[in-house]
Structures are given as structure tokens and as C-alpha cells.
Amino acid sequence: MNQTKAYAAEAANAPLAPFSFERREVGAHDVLIEILYCGVCHSDVHQARDEWGGSIFPMVPGHEIVGRVVEVGSHVKQFKQGDLAGVGCMVDSCQHCSSCDEGVEQYCEEGFTGTYNGRERETGAPTYGGYASHIVVREEFVLHVSEKLDLARVAPLLCAGITTYSPLRQWKVKAGDRVGVVGLGGLGHMAVKLAAAMGAEVTVFSTSPSKEKDARELGAHKFVVSKDPEAMKAAGNYFDLIINTVSAKIDLTPYLAALRLDGTMVLLGVPPEAPEIHAFNLIAKRRRIAGSLIGGIQETQEMLDFCAEHNIMSDIEMIPMKDINEAYERMVKGDVHYRFVIDLQTL
Ligand code: NAP
Ligand code: ZN
């Protein structure tokens, strides 16, 4: 068995602490990866604190993983020892439903297997994520990572990157489109970089006036302080697409009013509480509300290749493993610039 060092939450109200467990043996189709860096997603906080319900404890969070392949199973074709590798939010799916056939495994009809807080399809054993020294993943769910980029800054692309890239592609964002990004955190700052790289005119809506300078450096053309009702009103009837990344319940009304005719707001954030929406705000301009969940494996590879080509990486604050609880507290307060990444050498 593969003895693995990690950090885990033992319960919803417990801080993360050192933990050790055994990964499964490397099967014929598996890749064993030594984890170098793991990004810290707000979904880690939601799940470690059981804010969505149904969390499995003990929990080893982490689904923004980059590392190096140390061993491959006998049938593995795409990876060899020494390769760089990435793992995102999924480690398995049924592989035969219509969603999986279309390459959108995140919408697998049997439900995808989460990198953590999920259950292995064959054994039902809980899955443990990237706040760990190693991970074993079947080849189909391992991504290729370019040697050209700074690995620590690539880690957040595996969730924050693909989660924002996928809706920008799905809604066919092109040069000149007006894209709003609500919330400048991990997902938000990637949405800004990616939308700007696609040629969009990008506006950030933020509760933090202090983030304006950063927003512009990240590629935003405009910045709206969302706590200012006058500024929100002035932004009305303008956007083709609004990407909402906020992790807490907010009033969506002024953002719906900011959409132009046929505009869409895509919800990416998953606040524990449901939003309230009045039909008038939608029917007045045939506006739409949509949601989007991470991205498929093929699209994740496409996003990683796009980022390598355009030299796009996350802006990060590197932390040692022991600082994870403090990082969670800062994230909840919106004090994130713009992704915490754990250096697993410090485990
Ligand atoms: P994050 O780094 O904590 O960023 C969230 C940002 O939202 C904050 O930086 C803050 O930005 C804003 N915000 C936070 N609390 C707020 C409040 N009470 N009112 C208004 N704005 C607030 O989080 P993240 O990792 O980007 O994740 C964001 C959300 O997306 C989480 O709910 C996460 O679970 C979800 N998520 C969804 C998917 C998916 O597939 N759909 C994938 C990953 C994550 P400002 O300071 O700029 O206001
Ligand atoms: Zn995530």
C-alpha cells in the first residue's frame, strides 16, 4: 500500500490537521503522482465545513493538483515516469453515458467521482484530495502540464482556470464582447485573465475597492464597486455575459439589471443559501440565468494549452501546509490575492 501524508478535517467544525492514510495500489490504468503544489479553492472551505451538506469525514481537500509522475500502471500510454501531471476536480466517471461520450464527464449521468469528498466507483472507499504527498488517479483523468510555466501558478488552473474558461467558451466570448466578472477571488481573477485574452471588454464587480489596481493589472478595463448603488445603476443594461463567482449569498437583482437584451448571467459560485430572483428582472430583456460546473477533461487540456500559449497563470500567495486554517479564514473574508497555493514540500 502507498502510505500517504496529508492534512485532513476530522469534522465540520475541526481545523485541518496532520493525517495519514493509504492510497490504493497503482492499477494497470493508474498514474502515481508526487504532488508538488495544490491550490486552495473556496469549494474546499465549503466542503471541509460541510456547508453544502453530505460531507465525508475525515476529509483531505484539494483539487488543484500539479506534480510529477513517479510510477505508471502497465496499460498506461499517455504518461511516463518523470512527466509533469495535473489533476482537477474529477478522478473518475462512468465513461459510457451520453455526457461522458461527449467529453463532459462533469455532467456524467451516474455522477462524476470527486477528487475528494467522493467515493471510488469500484470500492466505495472515500476519495482523498491534494493536500497530500501523493495521489493515484486513472490515466484518463490526468492532464498534461507544460514544462514552460511556473508550476505553482499552474495549479489553480485545474479548477479556477477551467471553471471560468468553460463558460467563456460555451457562451462564445469573442473580441469586443462585454463581460462582467463578479467577485475578484480565485475564480474571478482567472475569469478576468481569460476573458481579456479572448479579446473581451472586461468589467470587475467587487466589494473591495482596494482591488481596483490589481483588477486593471489582471486585464480588466473597468471596475465597479458593487456596494455603491449609483455605480451599479450606471452599469445597467450593458453586458453580454456576467460570470458570477461569489461564494456567499448576494442580491442578484442589480447584476440582472446590468445585462443587456438576451444577456446571460452564469452562476459559478455556490453559496450555501439559495438566491431570490424576481421574474421581471429576466423577462424585461429576455435575460437568462445559467450555471456551469468545472469543465470536461478534453476542455481542461484545451484550457491548459491555451494558458501555456498565452502565458496565463494564476496570481498566487504560496503557503506552507501548516498555514491552511489561516488561509481559509482569509478567504472567507475575501482577503485572497488571488489564490493560496500549498507547497507540499512543507508537509
Ligand atoms: P474566493 O477566492 O473566496 O473568491 C470569492 C470572491 O467573492 C471574494 O474574493 C470576494 O470578492 C467575493 N465575495 C465573497 N464574499 C462575498 C460577499 N459576502 N458579498 C459579496 N462578495 C463576496 O472563492 P473561489 O475559490 O473563487 O470560489 C468562488 C465560488 O465558486 C465558491 O462558492 C466555490 O465553491 C465556487 N466554485 C464553483 C465551481 C463550479 O464548478 N461552478 C468551481 C469552483 C468553485 P471581492 O472582494 O472582489 O468582492
Ligand atoms: Zn475548486
What does this structure look like?
There is one protein chain. With 347 residues, this protein is α/β, with parallel strands linked by helices. It contains eleven helices and 17 strands. The strands form four sheets. Strands 3, 4, 5, 8, 9, 16 and 17 form a seven-stranded mixed β-sheet that branches. It has a six-stranded parallel β-sheet with strand order 12-11-10-13-14-15. A two-stranded antiparallel ribbon has the order 1-2. Strand 13, helix 8 (253-257) and strand 14 (259-267) form a beta-alpha-beta unit. Helix 4 crosses helix 5 (186-197) and helix 4 (160-170) crosses helix 10. The protein is globular, with a radius of gyration of 20 Å. The structure holds NADP nicotinamide-adenine-dinucleotide phosphate (NAP) and zinc ion. Zinc ion is lined by residues 41, 43, 63, 89, 159. Residues 41-43, 46, 159-160, 163, 183-188, 206-208, 211, 245-248, 250, 268-270, 292-294, 331, 334, 336 line the site of NADP nicotinamide-adenine-dinucleotide phosphate.
Question: Descriptors for this entry?
Answer:
347 residues, alpha/beta, Rossmann fold, 11 helices, 17 strands, 24% helix, binds NADP nicotinamide-adenine-dinucleotide phosphate
Quick structural summary:
With 347 residues, the protein is an alpha/beta fold. It folds into two domains: 2-159 and 295-346, Medium-chain alcohol dehydrogenases, catalytic domain (Quinone Oxidoreductase, Chain A, domain 1); 161-291, Rossmann fold (3-Layer(aba) Sandwich), CATH 3.40.50. The chain is 24% helix and 27% strand.
